[in-house]
């Protein structure tokens, strides 16, 4: 019986339309360090995005649920143009050639960072892909989602909108 339940749960998670159950709200805590390079080799950190709400998505080009949610992240980027939201996708334990091959098929306008050695993935305690973190304008982790979602609608969009409406103590 237990084997059947586990098999059904796994099948539900892997179904093309299956999405994560919901966001885990966290007590605001400063995000772990993030040091990565973009595809041009430029070093990036979370300080580059301070003053914005950040959607940090850990993904991989071999992960079907990761790839299914990417178009919704791009739609969210377009929908939120001009607002203080930054979407950052961190390719977990992949090299630039795999990521570039993927990007040749799917055009994305948000930054793609490389975590070739998986050190950021470990530091952030990511155990499943995709895993996403929503950070507030002060760089604090506020929400975590393990699994894919449609970022430009429903619960995800409501949370992002509410974070964008929060007062900012950041100087303009």
Query: Averaged pLDDT, please?
Result: 87
- Second-tier CATH architecture: 3-Layer(aba) Sandwich
The CATH class is identified as: Alpha Beta
The oligomerization state is: single chain
**Fraction in beta strands:** 25-35%
State Rg: 16 Å
Number of strands: 8
Low-pLDDT ranges: 1-20
CATH topology: Glutaredoxin
Strand arrangement across the biggest beta sheet: 1-8-7-4-5-6-2-3
- Tally of separate helices: 5
Structural class: alpha+beta
Please describe what this structure looks like.
- With 172 residues, this protein is of the alpha+beta class.
- It has one domain (21-165): 3-Layer(aba) Sandwich (Glutaredoxin).
- The protein has five helices and eight strands; from the N terminus they run αββββαβαβαββα.
- It has helices at 2-14, 64-79, 96-103, 119-123, 154-165, and strands spanning 24-30, 35-38, 43-45, 53-59, 85-92, 112-115, 131-135, 140-146.
- An eight-stranded mixed beta sheet has the order 1-8-7-4-5-6-2-3.
- Helix 2 links the parallel strand 4 (53-59) and strand 5 (85-92).
- The longest helix has 16 residues, at 64-79.
- It is globular.
- The N and C termini lie far apart (59 Å).
- The relative contact order is 0.23.
SSE arrangement:
Blueprint: H1 2-14, E1 24-30, E2 35-38, E3 43-45, E4 53-59, H2 64-79, E5 85-92, H3 96-103, E6 112-115, H4 119-123, E7 131-135, E8 140-146, H5 154-165
Parallel strand pairs: 4-5, 5-6
Antiparallel strand pairs: 1-8, 2-3, 2-6, 4-7, 7-8
Brief characterization of the structure:
This protein is an alpha+beta fold and 172 residues long.
């Amino acid at each position: 019986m237990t084997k059947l339940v586990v098999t059904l749960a796994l099948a539900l998670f892997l179904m093309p339309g299956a999405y994560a159950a919901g966001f885990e709200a966290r007590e605001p805590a400063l995000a772990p360090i993030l040091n990565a390079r973009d595809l041009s080799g430029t070093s990036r950190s979370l300080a580059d995005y301070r003053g914005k709400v950040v959607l940090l998505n850990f993904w991989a080009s071999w992960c079907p649920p990761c790839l299914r949610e990417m178009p919704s992240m791009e739609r969210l980027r377009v929908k939120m143009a001009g607002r203080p939201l930054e979407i950052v996708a961190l390719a977990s334990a992949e090299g630039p050639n795999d990521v570039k091959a993927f990007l040749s098929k799917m055009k994305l306008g948000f930054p793609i960072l490389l975590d070739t050695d998986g050190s950021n993935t470990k530091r952030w305690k990511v155990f499943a892909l995709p895993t996403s973190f929503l950070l507030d304008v002060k760089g604090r982790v506020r929400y975590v989602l393990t699994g894919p979602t449609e970022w430009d609608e429903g619960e995800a969009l409501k949370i992002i909108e509410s974070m964008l409406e929060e007062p900012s103590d950041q100087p303009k």
